[in-house]
Amino acid sequence: MTDRLDVASLAPGDRADAIRAFSWSINGRIEVDLPPDPNRLKAHATTRAVGSVKVSEIGWNVARLRRAAAAPVDEDMTPQVLVHLQEAGVSRFQQGGRQSVTRAGDLAVIENAKPYEAAFHGTMHSVLVRVPTRVLGLRPSLLDQVTAVRIGSERPVVGAAAALFARLARDQAAFDEAETALFAQPCVDLIRAVVSMTLGRDDLARAPLNNTLLQRVQEYVRLHLAEPDLTAARIAAEHQISVRQLYLTLSRAGITLGDWIRTQRLEECKRELASSAYQLMTIEAIAHRWGFASAPHFSRVFKAAYGVSPRGVRSQTRGGESGLSPATGSPRRGTSADSF
């Protein structure tokens, strides 16, 4: 289920109440500071449930959110851990005597039932992941040490978590409800791993890291899909595992690394060939930008996968057709090639 907010469709006089209602649905009745001119209020948000986890994409020009020390917690409010992924703008968080500033790519953790303050400079874009504190299952003494701390994306596990959260927030059409629910536990495990590693507790992070290895590998591949040196050795080294362990993890999920990477690259090539936005780019340039070194090899692999040549897809697009027919809309199983 997906909930949406867009105050641009509301009368200026109704926008402040809509923004407060959205904020209160996450945090209970906190203070919400807004620009004084209702005509300048901007806010859009999309929220989807991922099992017990809620993922929201938010863009707004709210000035500040604040839960005062004396503010009562609503009886029906669920204590939650909020993981804030900054995508644009600058935010400042305060909780537990700590203060941090986050910029694009940074994470910050907040407990919504305890006093805190979040201030935003200008228009802010973020992804907010909410998990009930009881579901996360981390000791309060651990959470108390990590809230309002800037968590940078230098560590691979942080980058993988950020990539997964952002994709879940945006790819609304990519997963049906049943598929989406499968990501609930990986989200929880990644948050546990991020918190544990931020505290330097690699011992506590080991189990959730092992549990999320497949998801982290897949997100890493998607982020680096266009790079020609995306090899098994590089992927394994990035995740501090052996190549053998990498192949074993993938095989348990029914994935052959080379075939899977090739399929992802072909899908990106097909998308660009069928898009009018890339009509001025040559087929060879599109193939090269997605990791195919040889144009003839790319054409053979593409036709084997879809039953039509790259030039045929482009001709269909120029002719006003939608692209590949349903029978050729996805790669055929069992195709192989010499390289990724």
TrEMBL record:
<dbReference type="InterPro" id="IPR009057">
    <property type="entry name" value="Homeodomain-like_sf"/>
</dbReference>
<keyword id="KW-0238">DNA-binding</keyword>
<dbReference type="GO" id="GO:0003700">
    <property type="term" value="F:DNA-binding transcription factor activity"/>
</dbReference>
<protein>
    <submittedName>
        <fullName>Helix-turn-helix domain-containing protein</fullName>
    </submittedName>
</protein>
<dbReference type="InterPro" id="IPR020449">
    <property type="entry name" value="Tscrpt_reg_AraC-type_HTH"/>
</dbReference>
<dbReference type="Pfam" id="PF12833">
    <property type="entry name" value="HTH_18"/>
</dbReference>
<keyword id="KW-0804">Transcription</keyword>
<dbReference type="GO" id="GO:0043565">
    <property type="term" value="F:sequence-specific DNA binding"/>
</dbReference>
<feature type="domain" description="HTH araC/xylS-type">
    <location>
        <begin position="215"/>
        <end position="316"/>
    </location>
</feature>
<dbReference type="InterPro" id="IPR050204">
    <property type="entry name" value="AraC_XylS_family_regulators"/>
</dbReference>
<dbReference type="Pfam" id="PF14525">
    <property type="entry name" value="AraC_binding_2"/>
</dbReference>
<keyword id="KW-0805">Transcription regulation</keyword>
<feature type="region of interest" description="Disordered">
    <location>
        <begin position="311"/>
        <end position="340"/>
    </location>
</feature>
<dbReference type="InterPro" id="IPR018060">
    <property type="entry name" value="HTH_AraC"/>
</dbReference>
<dbReference type="InterPro" id="IPR035418">
    <property type="entry name" value="AraC-bd_2"/>
</dbReference>
